[in-house]
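Page 42, continued from yesterday. The earlier attempt failed because a stray header line got pasted into the input along with the sequence. Redoing it now with the clean sequence only.
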Amino acid sequence: MMRSKTPRMNDMSIRPIYATDWPAIMAIQAQCYVELAPESLGVMQSKWRTSPTSCVVFERQGRVLAYALVHPWQRGDAPSLNTEISGQIDANCWYLHDMAISPNAQGMGIGKQLFTYVVNQAKALTVKGIGLVAVQGAQTYWQQQGFKADITSAKLTQSLDSYPDGACYLYLPLL
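This time it went through. C-alpha coordinates are written below.
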Protein backbone atom coordinates (compact mmCIF):
# COMPACT_ATOMS: atom_id res chain seq x y z
CA MET A 1 0.00 0.00 0.00
CA MET A 2 1.35 3.41 -0.98
CA ARG A 3 1.46 6.12 1.70
CA SER A 4 0.28 9.62 0.96
CA LYS A 5 2.95 12.32 0.74
CA THR A 6 0.45 14.93 1.92
CA PRO A 7 1.22 16.00 5.49
CA ARG A 8 -1.50 15.28 8.02
CA MET A 9 -3.06 18.35 9.63
CA ASN A 10 -1.98 17.18 13.09
CA ASP A 11 1.65 17.40 11.91
CA MET A 12 1.21 21.15 11.30
CA SER A 13 0.43 23.93 13.72
CA ILE A 14 0.39 27.67 14.11
CA ARG A 15 1.51 28.66 17.57
CA PRO A 16 3.09 31.55 19.48
CA ILE A 17 6.83 32.02 19.05
CA TYR A 18 9.09 30.30 21.60
CA ALA A 19 12.51 31.64 22.51
CA THR A 20 14.04 28.56 20.84
CA ASP A 21 12.45 29.48 17.47
CA TRP A 22 14.68 32.50 16.82
CA PRO A 23 17.51 30.75 14.94
CA ALA A 24 14.95 29.36 12.46
CA ILE A 25 13.13 32.72 12.19
CA MET A 26 16.38 34.57 11.52
CA ALA A 27 17.38 32.00 8.88
CA ILE A 28 14.02 32.35 7.10
CA GLN A 29 14.30 36.15 7.19
CA ALA A 30 17.79 36.00 5.62
CA GLN A 31 16.57 33.64 2.88
CA CYS A 32 13.47 35.67 2.01
CA TYR A 33 14.61 39.28 2.00
CA VAL A 34 17.07 39.87 -0.81
CA GLU A 35 16.33 43.57 -1.47
CA LEU A 36 16.97 44.71 2.09
CA ALA A 37 19.41 43.87 4.84
CA PRO A 38 17.92 41.50 7.40
CA GLU A 39 16.89 43.15 10.64
CA SER A 40 18.88 42.23 13.75
CA LEU A 41 17.74 39.67 16.30
CA GLY A 42 17.16 42.50 18.81
CA VAL A 43 14.90 44.40 16.41
CA MET A 44 12.94 41.28 15.50
CA GLN A 45 12.53 40.21 19.12
CA SER A 46 11.32 43.70 20.11
CA LYS A 47 8.20 43.11 17.99
CA TRP A 48 7.66 39.75 19.73
CA ARG A 49 8.18 41.19 23.21
CA THR A 50 5.66 43.95 22.43
CA SER A 51 2.95 41.44 21.54
CA PRO A 52 3.97 37.82 22.15
CA THR A 53 0.50 36.38 21.60
CA SER A 54 0.11 37.83 18.10
CA CYS A 55 3.59 36.81 16.88
CA VAL A 56 3.40 33.25 15.59
CA VAL A 57 5.20 30.52 13.69
CA PHE A 58 3.94 27.84 11.33
CA GLU A 59 5.48 24.53 12.35
CA ARG A 60 5.43 21.16 10.62
CA GLN A 61 6.86 18.06 12.24
CA GLY A 62 8.79 20.19 14.72
CA ARG A 63 10.34 22.48 12.07
CA VAL A 64 9.54 26.18 11.82
CA LEU A 65 8.63 26.87 8.18
CA ALA A 66 7.20 30.39 8.48
CA TYR A 67 6.57 33.20 10.90
CA ALA A 68 4.48 36.35 11.34
CA LEU A 69 5.47 39.27 13.55
CA VAL A 70 2.34 41.27 14.36
CA HIS A 71 2.02 44.00 16.97
CA PRO A 72 -0.21 46.94 17.93
CA TRP A 73 0.40 50.19 16.03
CA GLN A 74 -1.29 53.27 14.58
CA ARG A 75 -3.24 53.14 11.32
CA GLY A 76 -1.46 55.10 8.62
CA ASP A 77 1.95 54.66 10.22
CA ALA A 78 4.75 52.10 10.13
CA PRO A 79 7.86 51.66 12.21
CA SER A 80 11.08 52.37 10.35
CA LEU A 81 13.15 49.32 9.46
CA ASN A 82 15.85 48.33 11.93
CA THR A 83 14.09 50.09 14.80
CA GLU A 84 13.41 48.39 18.11
CA ILE A 85 10.02 49.10 19.60
CA SER A 86 9.22 49.03 23.30
CA GLY A 87 6.93 50.38 25.95
CA GLN A 88 3.29 51.27 25.73
CA ILE A 89 2.10 51.81 22.15
CA ASP A 90 -0.81 54.13 21.43
CA ALA A 91 -2.45 51.75 18.96
CA ASN A 92 -5.68 51.60 17.03
CA CYS A 93 -4.86 48.65 14.78
CA TRP A 94 -2.34 45.87 14.26
CA TYR A 95 0.79 46.13 12.16
CA LEU A 96 1.97 43.07 10.23
CA HIS A 97 5.66 43.82 10.45
CA ASP A 98 6.82 40.67 8.75
CA MET A 99 5.43 37.42 7.37
CA ALA A 100 7.91 35.10 5.70
CA ILE A 101 7.80 31.51 4.48
CA SER A 102 10.93 29.42 4.08
CA PRO A 103 11.76 29.11 0.36
CA ASN A 104 11.65 25.31 0.59
CA ALA A 105 8.09 25.51 1.98
CA GLN A 106 6.64 27.99 -0.52
CA GLY A 107 3.76 26.82 -2.68
CA MET A 108 2.26 24.71 0.13
CA GLY A 109 -0.46 27.20 1.11
CA ILE A 110 1.31 28.14 4.34
CA GLY A 111 1.09 31.88 3.68
CA LYS A 112 -2.68 31.72 3.28
CA GLN A 113 -3.07 29.63 6.44
CA LEU A 114 -0.82 31.93 8.44
CA PHE A 115 -2.55 35.08 7.19
CA THR A 116 -6.02 33.63 7.85
CA TYR A 117 -4.92 32.77 11.39
CA VAL A 118 -3.71 36.33 12.02
CA VAL A 119 -6.92 37.86 10.62
CA ASN A 120 -9.12 35.51 12.66
CA GLN A 121 -7.13 36.30 15.81
CA ALA A 122 -7.50 40.05 15.12
CA LYS A 123 -11.25 39.74 14.52
CA ALA A 124 -11.71 37.72 17.72
CA LEU A 125 -10.02 40.57 19.62
CA THR A 126 -12.07 43.21 17.70
CA VAL A 127 -8.96 44.79 16.19
CA LYS A 128 -10.12 47.46 13.73
CA GLY A 129 -7.66 46.59 10.98
CA ILE A 130 -4.17 45.57 9.96
CA GLY A 131 -1.53 47.75 8.31
CA LEU A 132 1.67 46.66 6.61
CA VAL A 133 4.43 47.83 4.30
CA ALA A 134 4.67 45.71 1.15
CA VAL A 135 8.23 45.15 -0.11
CA GLN A 136 9.92 43.21 -2.90
CA GLY A 137 6.90 43.42 -5.20
CA ALA A 138 4.45 41.94 -2.67
CA GLN A 139 1.93 44.76 -3.13
CA THR A 140 -0.17 42.74 -5.59
CA TYR A 141 -0.27 39.72 -3.26
CA TRP A 142 -1.46 41.84 -0.33
CA GLN A 143 -4.04 43.64 -2.48
CA GLN A 144 -5.42 40.21 -3.44
CA GLN A 145 -5.88 39.60 0.31
CA GLY A 146 -8.02 42.75 0.56
CA PHE A 147 -5.42 45.38 1.55
CA LYS A 148 -5.70 48.81 -0.03
CA ALA A 149 -3.49 51.89 -0.21
CA ASP A 150 -4.28 54.06 2.78
CA ILE A 151 -3.77 57.51 4.25
CA THR A 152 -0.25 58.82 4.34
CA SER A 153 1.46 61.29 6.62
CA ALA A 154 4.84 62.98 6.89
CA LYS A 155 5.72 60.50 9.64
CA LEU A 156 4.83 57.53 7.42
CA THR A 157 6.79 59.00 4.49
CA GLN A 158 9.83 59.30 6.74
CA SER A 159 9.44 55.67 7.91
CA LEU A 160 9.05 54.47 4.30
CA ASP A 161 12.40 56.10 3.47
CA SER A 162 14.04 53.30 5.49
CA TYR A 163 12.53 50.68 3.14
CA PRO A 164 13.68 49.74 -0.38
CA ASP A 165 12.30 51.64 -3.38
CA GLY A 166 8.79 50.56 -4.25
CA ALA A 167 7.72 49.88 -0.66
CA CYS A 168 4.15 50.99 0.06
CA TYR A 169 1.83 51.14 3.03
CA LEU A 170 -1.41 49.14 2.79
CA TYR A 171 -4.31 48.67 5.19
CA LEU A 172 -7.00 46.02 5.66
CA PRO A 173 -10.08 47.21 7.61
CA LEU A 174 -11.63 44.45 9.74
CA LEU A 175 -14.53 46.22 11.45
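Notes: The radius of gyration is 16 Å.
Reminder to self: strip header lines before submitting.
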